[in-house]
Specification:
Elements lengths: L15 H11 L17 H15 L9 H9 L1
Helix pairs in contact: 2-3
This protein binds zinc ion (ZN).
The site of zinc ion (ZN) has 8 residues, from helix 2.
Length: about 80
């Protein structure tokens, strides 16, 4: 059996998913897939996914083009 991870999050009474997210954040990786996240909390792919998901959910119409995900998108394109 694998030894369980012992770190600052081990003893917190939060869900396993939340611990995963906190560890990823600490290690500067995407909180969804674990890819390297240069800036922000997610990789570019998931930044965009999260952005579009939130637009939908909140019925937003404007796009804030100076936002990190748009800027990274235009660099990647
Ligand atoms: Zn990701």
């Amino acid at each position: 059996m694998r030894k369980r991870i012992e770190d600052e999050f081990t003893t917190l009474s939060i869900s396993r998913q939340r611990k995963y997210q906190l560890r990823m954040q600490r290690d500067k990786r995407c909180t969804e897939c674990g890819e390297k996240a240069e800036q922000g909390s997610r990789c570019l792919k998931h930044l965009i996914k999260a952005r579009e998901r939130q637009r939908d959910k909140r019925g937003l119409k404007r796009r804030y083009l100076n936002t990190l995900s748009y800027r990274l998108e235009s660099i990647a394109a």
